[in-house]
Amino acid sequence: MPGAGQQALTVREAAGEEARIDAFVSAHPDATPFHLTAWTHAVARGCGQRGRFLIAERDGAIVGYLPLTEVRSPLFGQALVSAGFAVGGGLIGEGVEPLAAAARAIGYPSVELRGGALPADWAIDDATYLGFVRPIAADDEGELLAIPRKQRAEVRKALANDLEVVTGGLALADEHYRIYAESVRNLGTPVFPRALFRAVLETMDADVLTVRHEGRAVASVLSLYFNGTVYPYWGGGTEAARGLRANDRMYFALMAHARARGCTQFDFGRSKAGTGPAAFKKNWGFVGTPLRYAKWSSGPAREVNPLNPKYALMVRTWKKLPLPVATLIGPWISRGLG
């Protein structure tokens, strides 16, 4: 119950109030870059999926917030996702239950929340994904010492290789996309639309770090920056990257680059528990923390986890596709994953 003289909390959909919402997000300790309105707009622009913003207000001030993306796919069904195409997002602030109720009332068969405050009586998944975050060391030597011995040796070998590191924005976008598209094809998953990457680079605090060998890019990562944390979000390497240890060079260079930008935390993103990517991050000295996601559905919930056995044949087939074919048709599929 509101206190004496305090108005009751109200929930509504906001339009044209990006500055107010972003001010609330930037000041909230649980917020991520995926809560920023620019992320939702970049997804809409790059993937053609509409964004919506629900806010909870009291006494004229925003006290709670839920960004949503309307994800529509002929292959995977429909859902409201918070945040769309992100590993985080979800409800922040007050008004968890009324915001969740307002999301359900929009009329989609399923609502998915990736992190944040979770409403009661929704299906909770805290076993599928792990998040990996740790502080950035004060200098390169401290960073090396923070890496367990075996991986530290690999990083030192990478540092000894003839590799060039460059950073930039849109000028590196096409090079990054080529590498990322090859990387995800090799993993058996479709690449996201090129327009999504460009929209993020154009509208958010983001950049690209690329590792080159003999003038040719072999590894590249697009990272987001928010409230002192760097988020290496879309990264990958070519077949040649493994032998050159270019991925090791890339992430170590990103730690130094982020430190120079004033960052104090390195968010290595999420990985599925028990997978190779999760083990890779643990080898770097990151401790996996279970991520808590929630889902509400009025019927059978959609399933987009590529580890689901029903997608096994699709994944094996995708790995064998010629890269130009995978790059051409991948965005049509991936824009419906959300």
Automatic annotation (TrEMBL):
One of its GO terms (molecular function) is acyltransferase activity, transferring groups other than amino-acyl groups. Residues 9-154 form the N-acetyltransferase domain. It holds the Pfam family Acetyltransf_6. PROSITE patterns: GNAT. It comes from the Bacteria. InterPro entries: Acyl_CoA_acyltransferase, BioF2-like_GNAT_dom, GNAT_dom, PEP-CTERM_FemAB-rel, PG_Glycine_Bridge_Synth. This is FemAB family protein. The lineage of its organism: Bacteria, Pseudomonadati, Pseudomonadota, Alphaproteobacteria, Sphingomonadales.
